Amino acid sequence: MAKIFAYATGSFPFLLIVILFSSTLTTAKSDSFSRNLSPKTLGVKREKLSHLQFYFHDIVSGRNPTAVPVAQADSTKRSLSSFGLVTMMDDPLTVKPEISSKLVGRAQGIYASASQSDLSFLMALNFVFSEGKYNGSTLSILGRNSVFSGVREMPVVGGSGLFRFARGYAQAKTHDLDFKTGDAVVEYNVYVFHY
């Protein structure tokens, strides 16, 4: 670069260098895959905080379970915590603890026993809402669920629809657990910032 500048003693070569340099900058800009946007471009308005409360029905027994094991390690059967068990779910979400109460959505995703010492799940799921103004919107949860703790907290890591740019947390509290069947009803309180 210094040699090029040294040879550019006349005005024409200097002008040529400036043109080539600015052309390089323009090319670099046009090859970029990202840009800054004003929130108004996407219709983003004022941020609000919402509280959602519903009941999650994890049904692992009977003829129509909503959660089924899909993978496990050879050692899972010998583990007191079911370490290595992976379960796929499509659990109903209702407004009251009774399964017959109004359906507001579904919890779809996976949970996996991720602790060798206690019953703690890695939860990766979407709350898919089907009722009211949130119909078609989702919230994404990713976190640790220590099943026998009184209240468990998991982060809300995103969302879609009315929950675009969502962030917050979900608190899970077991409402009912049938030790014979493994079926559970869990109360969720979700606090989420969104636009």
TrEMBL record:
GO cellular component, one term: apoplast
InterPro entries for the chain: Allene_oxi_cyc_Dirigent, Dirigent
Protein name, as recorded: Dirigent protein
PANTHER family in the record: NUCLEOPORIN-RELATED
Its job: Dirigent proteins impart stereoselectivity on the phenoxy radical-coupling reaction, yielding optically active lignans from two molecules of coniferyl alcohol in the biosynthesis of lignans, flavonolignans, and alkaloids and thus plays a central role in plant secondary metabolism.
Keyword Zinc-finger: no
A single GO BP: phenylpropanoid biosynthetic process
Matches recorded under Gene3D superfamilies: Allene oxide cyclase-like
Subunit structure: Homodimer.
Cell compartments where the protein resides: Secreted, Extracellular space, Apoplast
Pfam families membership: Dirigent
Signal peptide (residue range): 1-30
Family affiliation: Belongs to the plant dirigent protein family.
Keywords annotated in UniProt: Apoplast, Secreted, Signal
